[in-house]
Amino acid sequence: MDYKKLIIKKYEKSVSTNLSDIKKILGVRTQKFNNISDYRNLLITSSKSMVIKWKSNKKYLRTEFVLRAFVELYPVKLIEQSIMVDAMINILDDLLDSNLDKQDKMLYILEYLRVFSIYNFSLPSLRVQKVMGNYFDKLITLAVAEFNYQEEIVNENIFDKKIQLSTELLLMRAMDIDVFVQIPLTKENLDIETNTISAASKVFRAGNILKKDLLDIDIDKKQGQATLITYIYDKHTRDMKGYIHGILGLLESRMDSIIKRGINRRSKTIRDNFRNMFIEQKDEIDKIITKLVK
What is the model's pLDDT at position 15? Predict the structure, then answer.
C-alpha cells in the first residue's frame, strides 16, 4: 500500500472538517457577510505547503514509517491523530528554521491552528495526551542537548570517538518518532514489548535523519546551517565514508541486539519491519555517500 498517498489524501480531505465547523460558527451570517469559498481557498492554500513538501520528500512523514512497520496492527481510527501531530511538528520546524516572509508566516500559523483544531476535535485519549506532553518536553531538551553534543564532537580528537558520539546524537534526535509509535500502542495489546518496539523505531529513525542530513548538505551550506554532517564534510572529507559507515555499523549492531530481545510474535513483526526499513535505508545511504565523496 502507498501509505504516503493515503496520508496526503486524508490530510487534504481534513480541510472539509474545518469548513464544516466554520459554517456552524458563521451561521446565518455566512451568506450575508462572508463567502464560504473564500475560507475554502485560504485553507486549501495553507495546507498545500505541507503536501508539496511531503510529496517531494523535503519533509518526512513519521506516520508513514510507523504505518509501514505496524501494517494491519495499526488502529485505523488513530491515523488522523498521528497525521495532525506530524503536520504540527513539520510546521513548527519550518517556522523556526526557515526564512519566511510575512505572507508565508501567516499561512504557516493559519495551518498550524487548522491542524491543531482537528487534532483536538479527534478527542485523543488521556494516554495519548500524556504522551504528547512528554513528547514536547523531549523536543525542548533536544535543542540544548544537540548543541552540546555537536560541540563535544567538534572538540574530540579521536575519530572513532567522533563516530560514537555522532551515533548517540542521532539516536537522541530520533526521539522525535516516539509519539508516532506510542499513538497506535495505546490501542494495541503490545505493552509487554513497547520498549523494544520504541527502541527499534529510534534506530530506524536515526538512519533516516542521517540520510536526510546527507541529502541536505548543499542546502544547509548555502543557508549557513552548521550541522554535524556539514562539519564532517568540510573538515574530514577524506574520512567521510569511514565516518558514515562507522555510524551505520553501530546502528545496525544496536538494531540486531534489539531484535533478539523480543519474543512476542506481533511485536516481533513490527520490529522486523523497522529493521527491514533500516537496511533499505542503509543501502540508499551507501549510494548517496559514494556519489558525495568520489
Answer: 93
Mean pLDDT on 226-251: 89
Hey, what's the torsion of the CAs at 287, 270, 6, 203, to 10 degrees? -40
**Mean pLDDT, rounded, for 201-207:** 97
DSSP 8-state class, residue 99: -
Task: For residue 150, give the DSSP letter.
Answer: H
Domain, as residue range, for 217: 125-294
Asked whether residue 180 falls in the same domain as residue 99, the answer is no
Distances in Å between the Cα of 239 and the Cα atoms of 11, 159, 185, 231, 263 are 42, 9, 41, 12, 39
pTM across the whole model: 0.90
Q: 6, exposed or middle or buried, with CB in 10 Å at 0-12, 13-18, 19+?
A: middle
Q: How many domains does the chain have?
A: 2
Render pLDDT for 26-83 as a digit per residue (tens, 0 to 9).
775 545 446 778 888 899 999 999 999 999 998 999 999 999 999 988 989 899 999 9
Torsion sign, CA atoms 5, 11, 17, 23: negative
Cα 203 to Cα 205: distance, rounded to the nearest angstrom: 5
Place of cell 506481533: 266
Has residue 280 got a pLDDT over 60?
yes
Domain boundary among the residues 123, 141, 169 is at 123
Q: Answer for the pair 68, 82: CB distance below 8 angstroms, yes or no.
A: no
With contact defined as beta carbons under 8 Å apart, do 200 and 177 qualify? no
Angle (deg, nearest 10), helices 79-97 and 36-55: 80
Please state, in angstroms and rounded to a whole number, the distance separating the CA atoms of residues 60 and 209: 9
In the chain, the largest separation of any two C-alpha atoms, in whole Å, equals 72
Task: Give the model confidence (pLDDT) of 268-278 as tens digits.
Answer: 889 999 999 99
